[in-house]
Amino acid sequence: MLFTYKALDTKGEEKEGSVEAVNIDVAISSVQKRGLILSSIAPAEAESKLRIFRRRASMRDIVILSRQLSTLFDAQVSALRIFKLMAAETENQTLRRSLTEVADDLQGGSSISNALSKHPAIFSEFYVNMVKAGEETGKLNDTFGFLADYLDRNYEVVSKARNALIYPAFVITVFIGVMVLMFTTIVPKIAAILKDSGQELPIYTKIVIGISDFFVNYGIFLAAAVVIGAVLFIRYARTPQGKFSLDSFKLNLPYIGDLYRKLYLSMIADNMHTMVVSGIPMLRAIEITGAVVGSEVYRQVLNETLVAVKGGSPLSTSLSQYAEIPGIMVQMVKVGEETGELGNILKTLAKFYQREVMNAVDTLVSLIEPVMIVLLGLGVGLLLASVLLPIYNIASTAA
What we know:
Blueprint: E1 2-8, E2 14-20, H1 24-33, E3 37-43, H2 45-54, H3 59-74, H4 79-89, H5 93-107, H6 112-116, H7 125-137, H8 140-197, H9 203-237, H10 240-252, H11 256-277, H12 282-292, H13 296-310, H14 315-319, H15 327-339, H16 342-398
Antiparallel strand pairs: 1-2, 1-3
């Protein structure tokens, strides 16, 4: 449960913040452990619900933060001072509030990983466990450097793949909007002229007029059905079964599915490599990777793989049971297990699939424009031909 509080620090300055606790007594104790003199505290359930929409920080913000943290830890600045400094300098209000709370927790005696774990909307389980490994090994500067490099690579790959899909989605949306506008405003006026002429209309013109009549007479019902369908689809997509079905559909799409598959494989290899070289046990690395991979299909694969590895099966043998994991990845992992160089093998696989994603995106972008031009041209051409040819025939007959 979330509680908001107002308090005074040792210098008499007013402080405001929030704390997660099972009840108000635990919340009071947590605030007092931060060295603050409590003046008021109250539940903030309504605020907590609203913050679902506010508590967002971009991957770019986290990359920059991790890079700065690495530099400051390398300069042997104390953790408390680092997070206070980052909170004061960060422009993102959500991130600033979280960093302030992290600094308060550190002042109360909490570890960095435990303080970060209270903000899962910003610091993922992967991020927290990497920091925990850095605390145990005493190499927090290297850990934050690893995190910055990993997030930077991940940001580049994901953003490039996402941006490649934005352009066609925008063009198709605009095209559909223009076509609906034509069917509801322009075609009905032309259809009235054609019907008054009394001539026999071609079949394709009758189809266009029929579609236009449908939009004019039943468009409001169609719009309502689309809205209701979208709401039901979103609700279904948020269920475990819906997430799995949607992710399976994405992976089975022609060409796009191959792009998604390579994207997830690059994330799996990169996640596991980063954690393994940081000293995190393999079982924990598999578990965390499954939680943050972003695909229900691959999450299920990794969870089942985790069970098999716990039972004594080699990682390569466990992965080979699934069609979602390509043979080359299985063989490379097997070589890594046999030679004791699994970390380096995973790094090689991550780089390989990242290049594959980049190449696939470049190819997709180069194909999208000509394909869309042809398809949109055909659609507009058929529509114009359906209404202009009968008008031309009317004019020829009148002449």
